[in-house]
Amino acid sequence: MEGRVIRLPEKINVFSYLLIFLTIIFFLISFSSVLKAIKDLEKLELEHSKDRLEQYFENRKEALRHQILELGVWSELFWQVKTGKLNKEWFKENFDDWLPVVKLDFGYIFDKEGDPFYSTSPLLFDCKEIIPEIIKRKNLTFFLKLNKDTILNIAASLINKSEDAKQEGEYAGFIFIGRIIDNERLKEIKKEVREDFEITNLDDDKERVIFLTDYQDKPVIYLKINSSEKSIYKKLGKYITPAWFLTIGCLYALIFLLVKEGKRKIKEEKEKQLVFLGKIMGFIVHELKNPLATIKNCFYLLKEIKDENKRKTYLEIMEKATENITKTIDTFLKISKGEKGEKESVDVKDLIDEITKDMAIPPHIKIEYSLNNKPKVLGNRNQLRYVFKNIIKNSVESIKENGLIKIINEEKDSKVRIIFSDNGCGIKKKDLKKIFEPFYTTKEKGMGFGLGLVKYLLELNNGEIEIFSQEGKGTDVVITLLKGE
Amino acid sequence: MKILLVDDNFELGFTLKELLELKGFQVEYVEDGFAALDKFKENDFDLVIMDIVMPGMDGIEIFKKMRETKKNIKVIFLSGFVDEKRKEKLKNMGIKDFIEKPYNFSQIICKIEEQLSSDYKKEKEAQKF
Asked: What is the ipTM score, two decimals?
């Protein structure tokens, strides 16, 4: 039999997925602008600092001039070392004092006119003014560094360089500008430059520190930027690109959509529940109508008829009708409250017997069961009674002429399957999707409601229902329940 | 005055039959459509009182088949619940309304009188003389 398993379709909100996608794209675009900003700002910071450094040196020109002249001493010293005319006494007197506290800043080699010929630093310092003074000194060779070995090496390499230059006839001399960094001196320098720079400890690797290097790319001056930060953040504004606004816009729309969707779902749930309860109420009312009408009839009859035997019959009928009313109300109260009801082991054959006895099955319909092993299921008897009754009723209603309803069972692990097959009119494909909607009505024969309720009741009893049907050929209803003891 | 009563609920059908008989009608009661059609072929009824929603064939369908054999057959429908489709069908067949369960017995009597006004009056007058 051509089958179709019933499943509820899931709604996919394409728009919200699109929004999520757009948000990610825009965020990536805006994030790239942040990366660019970081890069730019780093560069900006460096340039800014260099500007300030230059200004610093400009301001300190006098002091530097003095420093250079003072350091000329070292040129003389080196000359002595180089030519072997070393005055050891002089060397000891000066060298030991100076060496540990002097640090190389930068150096120039200049030609005879005093124009820069070679520089270890991108910072150009106009030396022309001080050259005449320097020339008064013998040989213009300056060098400064931290320790003895380095000093000698540097001196040697620089001298070599200068000698090379001399061979070409372009060299006149070279100057190194260094600073004295012993603790005492450092404090003095700090005092002098506080307004512009904070000179940090040489071992300090903190961020936001820039440094100048010597010709060997070794760090010489460390500068920590403080005062310029504010202006840097002001410039952040230009990195707020439209992508940022789009990202924020998309996020806002997404949140709005989700909140709206959430609210709608809650509302839908509530409405569904209300509709379901309302329909259950409608069903109760409908179920009560026959017994109520019967009781009313009996009242009229009791008023009119004096025959004791007949009166007894009417009273019995009234009692039965009242019982039916009570049962109906009980069942529906439990259903509408969503209570699970007390569960017990229910004998399937007993239950079906009870139902078919009650239902007055038309003579043209035959019910056949072949139930193996006396199947028992776990569930609430009243609710299961309702489920089975509805399924059998639907089958009965679908059969026009001579019909057959077959009931068989299968057992697997802890579950029992009960299969109701009929050769009735079947269910149309388009209706098959909707039959579990609460009280959905399509059938031209029979009442049409009940399968929504059946499904709900089965859920309450940990059960499932599947319906396979082919129009004109019949329907198979498969119920799965937990096995009883 | 012969009435055919069709209702799948036995208690209701049985008590209604008793009541109608008490009022002097001759009533045949059956529980389903097939039995109803059989009875209808065998006897000549003046009126059919029928539930609409029944298993197998519903009241409307039964009535359609009855009309094929007897064109002027009169009917009173009883029902507890009638969906939109059935309401439409009733309308198409020229039946304006139905008696809603649970009814007052007097309602049924009124309807019977209305339906059978001419025949019924004649009968009553005949009884007087």
From this structure: 0.85
